[in-house]
Structure formats: structure tokens, C-alpha cells
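Try this one yourself first.
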């Protein structure tokens, strides 16, 4: 049984996903305005829209063209529901096409900045001066040529006479108000959400916490036990703290020390949770078993599979002891992007890049009910909730850490020597980033080690040692990532410290590949 954190009565703005890379961003921007918003498949039915209590719909952009036979269309009945709709880019074109207007390929495609002039008084641009054009961000090769009946242009750019259109209930813009390059973009979205849809402010850390606790209490029976697997990261820690508020001493947290942790991870968990949970914090020392199973294994997917399998075995052994015949709930810190990627993305074709064991690998033999209190949230929202709940700062601000731990940062077989180098070098990278104020500004920062050796010199002697690769990336949601232009002085200090403090390292390099084509972790 799956607990779906999606209470039926919450009023919301639905973003229909036509496959644009910015669809998620629209959803996030609306939440930033304090209104609950959800990404749904583009072909959602009118019944489902009503069931979800939608106050407004946004039609996202798309890489497709309405002139192609494979173009995705929404159910045409959505236009007759009396709900305000805002089409964005492809959303404008699909609205025009379905309402009887005409969309054509244009000779002068618009990419990048354009100056937008508001040409007619209307609610979407309320509060914006008509005489003062502002920058908007365009990215389109198709455009409306003939507007449907009763629609009129409400804003224009040099190349787009129909940069924004409306019939009084339906609105559409050819540009992207959700990107920061568009001036007044948030004002336009805010006008749609508050002035046109009349949405209430129903999304803030306090409201989310309150609502989540109510939901958990209505799901979990008075005698049931909830078990939360702690990883030391902010998602599982927040899941645990919110559950503690909801079910009190019926929550148990299990932390499996698989020997592939960062320096200080285990101590951080002790410090952050022991006082709160007492003996309900179970720390299982399974280092020997994990490392024995990983001996001789070099293949990255095989390493992931072994860690996943051993993790489940360890977890089940603890859960069996705690359960004592009661109904057991397994709490997971699944976030909204994972949910959207695995289910709702009707217009997405996913390919398996890496198997993330904490998404797919649930205990198989034990009968758990699954509870995922964060499944409606983005990472930055989780961090805000964590702060509101009073979680320790070092847990809230900790960089994401993969479930299989250092096993995916060690290229080839996990040996004790490489494990030590990877752990110590990563700690140096983190320490130097903290000292220089970069730690909180980047997404992840760590060290990688493989089997390649390089010659060095120590004193008067030639020495052969490992090559450590330092990786520091910036990202929004881990789907894409850029390598970070760290100042040379910081890189130099990291390099000096690693080669001085770790005798078995002779070379340090810096990874300058972004994602794509690389991934964040090396394996
Ligand atoms: P990649 O390396 O695929 O990573 O660009 C994207 C984000 O996911 C984390 N990651 C994992 N997390 N189990 C996890 O729980 C895994 O197997 C795993 N592999 C990668 C990675 O740290 C980054 O934040």
C-alpha cells in the first residue's frame, strides 16, 4: 500500500507537462509564490482536473511543434471547464490550434531576449506600465498567425505581434515568464495565480508540516510502528523528524553503517538523533559484511546491486526485531522529482542511466506499508522545512550523498586503501570548501580515486601513488550539473593538502566535465 501525500481538498494550480525542460520550473515558481502547484501529464482528463481541485491550469512548453503528427495535445474539453488557463510558448500554440486559430513555422525564429510591449489593459499584466517595454525571454520556431475567435493580442515584440493573447478567461504568452531572464516574470505568474485564478496562499513550510502531520496521523494506526532508514542526508533526516512529531515513540530509525560513509557521517547521526530517539535510534555496524561482499567486484552496477541487497538484508534484520508482529510502515524520503520521473512524465521517455538503489530497492520479503511524507516536495523546500523543524545545521546543509556511498566514488574494486584515500581526500575537499565559503554555494564536492597510478617524488625518492580526482559541481536538481570554476588558490591548497596528508597519493586532478555528457558521480 502506498501513502500518497496528495490530499484531495487542497486547491492547486496544475501545470500540464508537454515535455519542456522548463515545465518543472513553472511549478516551482508558483510554489515560490506560496501556492501549491503540481506537474501532471499533458493529457490529464477533465474529471481528474476537477478531482484535484484545480483553480487554474498552465500549459507548458514543448520541444514538439503542433504542426507535427506526433504533437501532444491536451483534452480539448479543458477549455470549456470555466477554469482560467495560461499557455506558455507551445502552450500558446496548442491553445490557438485547438481553439480554431492557425499556427505556422516562422521564418524569423526568436531565441533569447526580446522587448515586450503591453498593448492592451488586462489582468495578466496588471501593475506593469504599458508605456515601458521590458525584456522577455523567447525560444520558439512556431508562432500564431491567425488568432481564434474572440482572442486578441495583449502584448507584442518586434517579431511577434501575438506575444501574449487572451479571450478574457484563457491567457497565453509566447515567451517564458518562469525564467529569471524575463523581467517581471514572477509578477506575471503572480497576476495569473492571484488575480485571475484567485488562488489562496496555501504553501509555506509551516503549512506543509502541519498538513503532513495530520495526513500521517490519519494513515498510521495507533498501534503501528514506523521504521525510517536514516542515511545522514537531509531527506531521510527530515522524514524522520516529521514522523517523530506525528507518531512519537512509535518511530524507530535505522542507520546502517556499511563502511562506505564519509568521514564523520556516523558521529553526525549520533549527535543529531540520539538525544531525540534514545534507544529508538538503531545503528547497525555492517562494515565487515558489506566490504566482504564487495571484494573483487569492479563493475559499477554490480557494486550498486550488492550494496542495495546488503542494505535490505541489514534493514530487515533490524526491522524483524523491532516489529514484534505489529503493522510496520517503512518511511522513505522520496522527493517530488523522483515521483514525477517515475510516474507522471507521460511525455517523457526515461532511459536507465544508473540504478539508484534507494528508489527501486525496497525490502522484498517483509510486508511493509510505504509512507513517503516528502513526495510532494522539491529539495529546496525540504531544506526550508528541515530548518523550520529545527534540524541541526550540518544535516540541513550537507551535500547530497549517494546511497551506495563511496563505492560509486571509487573506480574499480573497493579496497581498504582506496576507501581510506577517498574518505580522507573528500574530507579535505569539504574542509577547504567550508573554509573558503564555497561549501554552501555548490551542490556537491568530493574526491574520486581509481586504480591508475602516477609517479611522484618524495624527498629524494621516486614514489608511485594514486591519482585523486577532485569533483565540485553546481546543480539545481542533479538532472544537469556544471563543474565549478573554483579559484586556483583553493584548488592549489586542496591539492597540496591531499598529497601532503595522504602518502599514497602523488597526483591530484580536477574534473572539468559537466552533466551531460558526464554524470555527477564517476560510477
Ligand atoms: P549522477 O551521478 O547520476 O547523480 O549524475 C545524480 C545525483 O544522484 C546521486 N546518486 C545516487 N543517489 N543512489 C543514490 O541514492 C545512487 O546509486 C546514486 N547515484 C548517484 C548523486 O550523488 C547526485 O546527487
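Now uncover the answer:
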Amino acid at each position: 500500500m502506498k501513502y500518497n501525500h496528495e490530499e484531495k481538498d487542497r486547491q492547486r494550480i496544475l501545470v500540464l507537462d508537454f515535455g519542456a525542460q522548463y515545465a518543472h520550473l513553472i511549478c516551482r515558481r508558483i510554489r515560490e509564490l506560496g501556492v501549491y502547484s503540481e506537474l501532471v501529464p499533458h493529457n490529464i482528463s477533465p474529471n481528474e482536473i476537477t478531482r484535484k481541485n484545480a483553480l487554474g491550469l498552465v500549459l507548458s512548453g514543448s520541444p514538439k511543434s503542433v504542426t507535427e503528427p506526433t504533437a501532444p495535445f491536451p483534452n480539448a474539453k479543458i477549455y470549456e471547464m470555466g477554469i482560467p488557463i495560461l499557455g506558455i510558448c507551445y502552450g500558446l500554440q496548442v491553445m490557438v490550434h485547438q481553439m480554431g486559430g492557425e499556427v505556422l513555422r516562422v521564418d524569423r525564429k526568436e531565441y533569447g531576449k526580446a522587448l515586450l510591449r503591453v498593448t492592451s489593459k488586462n489582468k495578466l499584466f496588471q501593475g506593469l506600465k504599458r508605456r515601458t517595454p521590458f525584456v522577455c525571454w523567447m525560444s520558439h520556431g512556431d508562432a500564431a498567425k491567425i488568432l481564434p475567435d474572440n482572442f486578441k493580442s495583449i502584448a507584442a515584440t518586434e517579431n511577434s505581434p501575438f506575444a501574449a493573447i487572451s479571450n478574457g478567461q484563457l491567457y497565453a504568452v509566447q515567451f517564458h515568464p518562469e525564467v529569471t531572464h524575463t523581467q517581471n516574470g514572477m509578477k506575471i505568474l503572480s497576476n495569473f495565480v492571484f488575480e485571475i485564478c484567485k488562488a489562496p496562499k496555501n504553501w509555506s513550510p509551516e503549512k506543509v508540516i502541519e498538513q503532513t502531520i495530520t495526513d500521517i496521523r490519519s494513515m498510521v494506526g495507533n498501534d503501528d510502528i514506523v521504521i525510517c532508514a536514516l542515511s545522514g542526508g537531509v531527506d531521510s533526516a527530515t522524514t524522520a523528524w516529521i514522523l517523530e512529531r506525528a507518531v512519537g515513540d512509535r518511530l524507530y530509525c535505522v542507520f546502517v553503517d556499511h563502511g562506505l560513509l564519509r568521514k564523520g557521517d556516523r558521529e553526525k547521526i549520533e549527535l543529531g538523533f540520539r538525544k531525540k530517539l534514545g534507544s529508538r535510534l538503531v545503528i547497525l555496524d555492517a562494515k565487515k559484511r558489506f566490504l566482504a561482499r564487495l571484494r573483487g567486484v569492479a563493475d559499477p552496477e554490480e557494486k550498486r546491486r550488492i550494496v542495495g541487497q546488503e542494505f535490505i538484508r541489514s534493514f530487515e534484520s533490524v526491522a524483524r526485531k523491532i516489529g514484534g508482529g505489529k503493522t510496520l510502515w517503512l518511511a522513505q524520503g522520496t522527493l517530488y522529482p523522483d515521483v514525477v520521473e517515475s510516474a507522471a512524465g507521460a511525455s517523457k521517455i526515461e532511459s536507465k542511466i544508473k540504478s539508484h538503489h534507494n528508489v527501486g530497492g525496497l525490502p522484498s520479503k517483509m510486508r511493509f506499508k510505504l509512507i513517503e511524507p516528502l513526495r510532494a516536495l522539491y529539495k529546496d523546500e525540504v531544506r526550508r522545512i528541515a530548518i523550520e523543524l529545527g534540524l541541526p545545521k550540518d544535516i540541513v546543509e550537507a551535500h547530497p550523498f549517494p546511497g551506495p556511498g563511496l563505492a560509486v566514488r571509487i573506480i574499480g574494486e573497493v579496497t581498504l586503501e582506496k576507501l581510506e584515500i577517498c574518505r580522507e581526500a573528500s574530507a579535505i575537499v569539504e574542509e577547504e570548501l567550508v573554509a573558503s565559503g564555497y561549501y554552501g554555494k555548490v551542490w556537491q564536492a568530493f574526491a574520486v580515486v581509481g586504480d591508475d597510478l602516477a609517479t611522484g617524488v618524495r624527498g629524494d625518492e621516486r614514489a608511485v601513488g594514486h591519482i585523486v580526482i577532485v569533483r565540485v559541481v553546481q546543480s539545481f536538481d542533479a538532472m544537469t550539473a556544471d563543474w565549478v570554476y573554483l579559484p586556483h588558490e583553493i584548488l592549489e591548497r586542496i591539492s597540496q593538502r591531499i598529497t601532503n596528508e595522504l602518502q599514497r597519493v602523488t597526483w591530484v586532478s580536477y574534473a572539468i566535465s559537466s552533466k551531460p555528457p558526464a554524470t555527477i558521480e564517476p560510477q
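Discussion: The chain is about 35% helix and 25% strand. The two ends are 33 Å apart (CA to CA).
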